[in-house]
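Data availability (excerpt). The following record was deposited with the supplementary files.
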Amino acid sequence: MESGGRRLLPILALQAFSEYYRQERKPPVTAGLLLTNTLIYLRPGFLHNIIPTLEEVWFNPYLIVKNWDLRRFFLSAFYHMGEPHLFYNMLSLLWKGIQLETSMGSVEFACMIAELLAMSQGITLILAKSLLVFFDYDRAYYSEYSVGFSGVLFAMKVVLNSQSDNYTSVHGLIVPTRHAAWAELILIQMFVPGVSFLGHLGGILAGLLYLRLRRSYSGSDPLTTIVRKFIRILRSPLRFARGLFGLHRRRISGSGIVGGNRTGRSLSGTWRCPACTFNNSEWLSICEMCGTEMDGNGLSYIRPSIQTRDLSPEELRRRRVERYSR
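Predicted structure:
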């Protein structure tokens, strides 16, 4: 899959870097999808023998049904015919992915992409098979070879524009934003030769199906719920280890620790002075910062000692600063 120069890929990289640099929160799933599609197209040496060839993953309804070829079913979406094909698909993914992932969250966005991929490919397969069954003379779609992320992108466009009441321009044609995907489907089919009509139509129908299913759930969809629970399970051993080995963070200043409750012992092995709020070692009966005494039971504080009883707040602050600066 040589592109004859790869002049567009540096532009794609620059555009992606610029968009991500401007984002306060960098969407990791969108970045991962961009990287995955680009690496599959470039086929660098360390992946050359691992990644299947284009001929092995063409989306072909006949071969998928005949051989139950799930590799073709899923992987064909991540392959592209040439540099322009990859470039325009990835620019579209960048723009749509940043908006959707930022608003939905990375976990829900990743689950949505997986669902849209499976539904768009599945609907395309069903459409091709249905045309063969009901119109036996029309075998073109059933034997068609196609690749690319366009089906998922059309589904993402449907989801992104579903709540919009505005109008948008689709190649110079002003249409309601929520119907932009349909207008783009027709215009691309009219003016761009060699595109997969069923693949794009399957993406639009997948987006509509996703929205219908999403509205039927009161909370997150089942896949998102499962993934979130799985992530929590994976994090549980890490939280346990942190608690077991005391890996929680502490803010430490000087020889004392800032934090804890206002009375009694603030953290294990320390007690907090009520006068200057400094945490002292339990082995000390007088505050290391200002000289205030701790009472005998070690659970509360008594009056300041004679030497600090009449100190002003400014003097206490001065002593504290001097203590911290040592």
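Summary of structural features: The domain at 8-216 is CATH 1.20.1540.10 (Rhomboid-like fold).
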